Give the backbone structure.
Amino acid sequence: MKNAELGIMRHSAAHVLAAAVLRLFPETKFDIGPSTETGFYYDFDGDHSFTSENLVAIEGEMDRIIGENLPIIRRDVTRKEAEEIFLEIGQHYKLERLADIPSGEVISIYTVGDFVDLCRGPHLPSTGAIGAVRLLSIAGAYYRGDEGNRQLQRIYGTAFGTKKELDEYLNGVEEAKRRDHRRLGKDLQLFTVDNDVGQGLVLWLPRGTILRMELQNFIAKELRKQGYQQVMTPHVARLELFRISGHFPYYRDSQFEPIPDRENLDRNLTYGELSAALESGGCGGFLIKPMNCPGHIKIYANTPKSYRDLPYRLAEFGTVYRWEQSGELNGMTRVRGFTQDDAHIFCTEEQLETEILGCISLVQKVLTTMALRDCRVRMGLRDPSSNKYIGDEEIWEKSENALRRAVKRLGMVHVEEVGEAAFYGPKIDFVTKDVLGREWQLGTVQVDYNLPERFHLNYIGADNQPHVPVLIHRAPFGSLERFCGVLIEHFGGDFPLWLAPEQVRLLPVGDGQLPYAKEVENLLLERDIRATVDSHSDKLGAKIRRAEIDRVPYAAIIGAKEQGSLGVSIRSRIRKDHEGDHSAAGFVELLVEDIRTHRLPDALL
């Protein structure tokens, strides 16, 4: 079933939901019930608070209405007729929605049996054309999304053409819950978010820090191959720097509030006056950095440059801070402080396309290594009718065409989206699917002619004259927080060996094997393999279960037999052909090779 057809069916299912609620709870008031990307919902108001038991009853009533194959009838009415209809049935929310319809616009109502609704449609011809439905949950929702209004009860559901499709979707939902990075992050002790620290500010726990550092080491090695130089910049800088770059005010809504300069602070100003002075430039201040690029630009400008110095590639694992609404925060995937694997390349126009290709190849290397193979390219272009962009049309055309040529040269399928460019230049984003088929926007490459002009950057060309370089912004991971959140769910906590915080757990059967287990641990540690010994007095079965719960890739059992042969007996979550008996030395070499090659778990090969 095509998306448009599915949307119509789900919208029709929403009307059936409301009709079922009115059959069971006649005094209920109803507001709106649209289809969504994954299903539908309807908002209700009444004295009765819906429960999970009610959902079962309502879903049963929906099945009866669908089985009755009632016609879904559209009728165009006058505004006066609509008012009379909804006044008679006492549905005041519909009267308020009716008032939103502009004068002269067609007003239509749909009926399903005794249920009548104000709706523009379209809908299926009858309820019998609706496939399989399932009600999922109940949540609160403020009327019109305004916290000052009454809170309604929102019932969520979904619908598919067949029961098989519905079951597949529900199984996917359950699998997504099992893989939820917030739950796994807690269970595996990877990260936490503490309200005393602040919403959206991630605390990396020791095991999570290992995961992050392995990713940083991986990308740093690739950067060295491509000639990048690592730098570090402060977390805060003068507000004027971001005025010049344009991040203030162009990026204003996504920034923390500016900090006044204490040395020149007029303490007689009210908070409102101080804020206005910071906004206008009447007062000096600082800004917690939302971007790393102004700092990198200043590093470039620190010394004169010749064309022989270009391309000049700077990289930083730079932490930035952006203000996100609390309702939009989500574990590690939507945060207020995050670290980008950020880099900026200063190059000539002649070098631009080659450098873009190098950036794209790096993103592809990252995604392939992580088994994120299903990827599409989204090209964000300037909207000429908008005033949110800086620079003239000519340089935008040059930068957009440079991205087009690079993508075409690589034969990459891409879509162009007008209005999705950064304020200083066009970009290509890499949108990839995880094992559950969910899309994530990860790496990005952006071309920028504007910031070098605004900061008066130059290099001396072969003609001995000053020229303005072109700037490329790029980040293969995007942000380490978001990328790790995606990886936790993508791998379901069963990381490839090289990324696993704990790679081997040694399980001595009894205290008599502890000394030998320590010897094997040292053998592993000497080869930079992260190993621990479970020295608890529990029985072996309990130790095995603990290693399973902790998702340790390899559990090495050591009993009297293994001790006598200087071996180990292996159980593996990620590579079944390594299971069984090995010499300790041979087992170490197997792991070293898998780590060296970044081998994926069996499930993702």
Observations:
- The CA atoms of residues 29 and 91 lie 6 Å apart.
- DSSP finds 19 helices and 27 strands in the chain.
